[in-house]
Fold this sequence. Notes:
By secondary structure, the protein is mainly alpha-helical.
Amino acid sequence: xxxxxxxxxxxxxxxxxxxxxxxLMFVTLYTSRIILKALGVEDFGIFSVVGGxxxxxxxxxxxxxxxTQRFFSxxxxxxxxxxxxxxxxxxxxxxxxxxxxxxxxxxxVGLWFFxxxxxxxxxxxxxxxxxxxxxxxxxVVKIVQVxxxxxxxxxxxxxxxxxxxxxxxxxxxxxxxTLTWVEYDKLMLYAMLLFLLTLIIASIYKIYCTRKFATCRxxxxxxxxxxxxxxxxxxxxxFGNLSFVAKGQxxxxxxxxxxxxxxxxxxxxxxxxxxxxxxxxxxxxMAVNPQIIKLYASEQKEAMQHLVFKSARLSYFLLFFLxxxxxxETEFILHLWLTVVPEYSVIFTxxxxxxxxxxxxxxxxxxxxxxxxxxxxxxxxxxxxxLLNLPVSYVFLKLGYSxxxxxxxxxxxxxxxxxxxxxxxxxxxxxxIGRFFREVMGKALIVSFISGILPWFLSTTxxxxxxxxxxxxxxxxxxxxxxxxxxxxxxxERTFIQQQLTRIFAKTNTE
Length: 511
């Protein structure tokens, strides 16, 4: 298959995912507003931290999810559909086993932690218990769903992924409105309805995959070498994903122990806004990742490196384009979005988005490492670095630092992890670290500095309010867009954009 066809597929899939993202961003943010108002700050924080106990066990699932995606894309890159069918059945069997393991651990160790360590008001303990049980059930369903999602992404059927996600968002919005209509315990009802929604969505993915992909029809066969290969690969992924869980839910639980559920609510709000913005990058990388793995599988390493550099650079630009006005107008946006803004939400939002900008460079690098399959020492070193987030945060919180110190620690460790990823890829596939800093990070820093001057000046000189927000937003879009086009893109990329715009305008004028 020619590279031009691959590029067209990436562009098409990216556009489909962006259509999904734009819709989901507005629906999700509006849904969060309704849920926060319906539950209140305290119950919203309780839901965040109680569900987080189960999510701590997500490193089992995340490790297998990455492995499943890698093996599916690798076999498709080789064109071996028979082996792909075996990989799917093996992956589903392993995920069922993981679901059972998570269920056992959640109902023993997790339940013990719930009753002995979480900071939950006594009058909400029973509701918290049922939230915990429904969270377990929801998570178990999501574990078994992973091989089907991975199949859709590996086959690059992003349209299906987009449409189902939109349906899920609309149902979640309906769920949120339901909370405002009923008098029953809203926290318990929210957890129960989320479980039912997850079950419906998982069923849709399963039905689609079994009808469209012959390789997704489960047949249990004991292929010991294949199981060992997947589990061995996942085992090292397990350690790496443990570090992400420590940074996310581990720190969330620490904050609950030190400060209570109100801080969990503030952090949850910040992460929801960051997730909505970061969807731009996630959708772009979701479209690119299968191609990176397939290029490695077909031994086109030069084309793979070119795609890695390009996607890392564009990932940052996409995220920065949206992030700059949010960073400058965080307080106004949060008050516009929410009726109640929990304390620390503003500083959490700013720092978490900065952390996301740092991490945006790493997505294609992580996919490249996964493609090689040589992840043992990578996961030990990089995962070990990121795992420090939890103990270091504990030490600083114990010393009396404020909650946002946990995000400062996360940003610092993310920068170290980025350098380590580049060092490993230099050894694995010959990526030039110097070239990466020049062509990717160098351009990113120049674009950020030049485009940020005018919006920053406006945000510090104009009076706060809707007018300033609109002026800063327009100035940010113009400055960032112009700087990306003039400085951030290569000559070939600028020529391609100009040709596409000329074609669109010519078509418009003839109609």
